[in-house]
Amino acid sequence: MKSSRSKVLHEVCGRTMLDRALDAVEGLGPQRTVVVVGHRREQVEEHLAALPFAIETAFQAEQRGTGHAVAVALEQLGELSGEVIVTYADVPLLSSHTLEAMLSQHRQYGDQVTVLTAQVPDPTGYGRILRDEAGHVQGIVEHKDADEEQLLINEINSGILLFDAVALREGLSHLDTNNAQGELYLTDVLGIARERGNRVGAYTTTDLWQTEGVNDRAQLARMNAEQNRRLCHHWMREGVTILDPATTWIHESVTLEEDVTLLPNTHLEGATSIGAGSVIGPEVTLTDAGVGRDCRIVRSHVLLSEIGDGAEVGPYAYLRPGSQLGSQAKVGTFVETKNSQIGDGAKVPHQSYVGDAAIGAGVNIGAGVIFANYDGVSKHRTTVGEGAFVGSNSTLVAPLEIAGGSFVAGGSAITDAVGAGELAIGRARQRNIPDWVERNRPDTVTGRVARDQAPGTPQQSTAQQDDASSAAREEDQ
């Protein structure tokens, strides 16, 4: 992966590959689960410690093959009986349903070993399943050890194996490194079990994606695209309209209600939820956002925020963590909010910054209003009461309280509290200086126009100006 992060901690549709692998096996209700760790073990162990269920780890200090890895895990488990499933943390689309079907067949036939296989068009790089003339599984040969005839086989070993615990221990004790890679192959346990008269079976899946692993960023992108396609298809069947699934990305943890519409280039991440009838997009990213019913969000970014029913956001709005919009509220073009509550029906339509604020219901915030919440050391809150009006291009310097029903004149810098029904004006009185332009900018376009427009200067009509221009042209000729 060429990454500072462990491969299995890279994500597919918002969930790490390791979490996906654990979900698949946890669906079977195992008594114990062991993750074999090696490279970047600290990262993996830290991640596992944060999970809501107990996972054991076994450290493989020296990577000597898959057989050695399983032997390390068995040392961790000690004496055990029953069935043991071996899966891989870099096969992210493996499902509990497939493992359940595999386990059911294993028990039905009384097999000691069952391997998950698939028929693939290009088996290059995979181990091949060897069968006898009757179709019984004889063993697995790795790609590097296969002869020309075996390389023609297109039934491959997924690496997912189910063992009787006793047969597994016995097989591991007879492994050797007499192969092209000089490793202990777990797959050799199948041949050993067969030689000892144990039953060996295969469960074949038709979903090839469930057998595909990830070794680089290109394969990771393929997995993301496939899982996202499946998620989009699922939500469309649940009553969600997705105009362009190819450009719509949805995390596994997202929840959508019926009649939601997702327009192109919409990204829904984390624990985002969207209520019925809302239209999202185009070009919207929602991360851990709660969106109510019948909302409209256009070309905006919303992070860790809540949006009430019927609210409007965008275009080009940025709702940062802690933003809360009431029902029918509006946050419009080039507005940024953070840690602020905007009441029902309140509007912040244009080019404003709203930080650490509580805005009451029905408030109107004019264009270019800045909530100055930071004094260089600490942040402070501003409260704007219900029904207040804040004129355009005003600055509200926190800490500040503007009462309900008050009015702030445009262009004001407000530093003191404003009472109910009061008009607050915080700006210098305008002064007009006569003839300033003619004295200081006489040779500019502004100066010439000022002279022409000065009181007492004869003004030519349009017809007179046209006649004068014609006469001037004739004189030039």
UniProtKB/TrEMBL annotation:
Acetyl-CoA binds at A367, N373, Y374, S392, G410, R427. One of its GO terms (biological process) is cell morphogenesis. Residues 459-471 have a biased composition (Low complexity). Residues 438-477 are annotated as: Disordered. Its cofactor is Mg(2+). InterPro entries: Bifunctional_GlmU, GlmU-like, GlmU_C_LbH, Hexapep_transf_CS, NTP_transferase_dom, Nucleotide-diphossugar_trans, Trimer_LpxA-like_sf. It is an enzyme of class 2 (transferase). Mg(2+) binds at D90, N215. Its main location: cytoplasm. Catalyzes the last two sequential reactions in the de novo biosynthetic pathway for UDP-N-acetylglucosamine (UDP-GlcNAc). The C-terminal domain catalyzes the transfer of acetyl group from acetyl coenzyme A to glucosamine-1-phosphate (GlcN-1-P) to produce N-acetylglucosamine-1-phosphate (GlcNAc-1-P), which is converted into UDP-GlcNAc by the transfer of uridine 5-monophosphate (from uridine 5-triphosphate), a reaction catalyzed by the N-terminal domain. This is Bifunctional protein GlmU. It comes from Parenemella sanctibonifatiensis. The lineage of its organism: Bacteria, Bacillati, Actinomycetota, Actinomycetes, Propionibacteriales.
